[in-house]
Fold this protein.
Amino acid sequence: MFFDDTCYLLPFEDATQAALVHALLCSEPVRQLLDSLKYPGAKRPITKKLLQRIDLAATLQECDLDELVESASNSLKNSVTEQDIETLAQALDPTVIDLAAGEGQLTLI
């Protein structure tokens, strides 16, 4: 982590949700989005406007459930469950959540 004269904070009351959002923000879909939209020669290649384009609910649909759980669990040094992911998904988008049984993908319906 590197702090400059500008930094952004996402506050959480729950460490599990913070770890899950961290895992989402470090996921391949977000990395690909940032790589495709940032300006490498700019003073600040990643801007507030660029960060605001990240759709966490859509990213959650694209991520592999097992990888997300593993990444978040490693951050917390304890287990993250599918229920934790469902709780996060509901916080991101208040629709009904359906976990595809045995497929390791989270689907928002």
About this structure: The helical segments are 15-25, 28-37, 48-51, 56-62, 65-76, 82-92. The chain has one domain: 15-108. The beta strands are 97-99, 106-108.
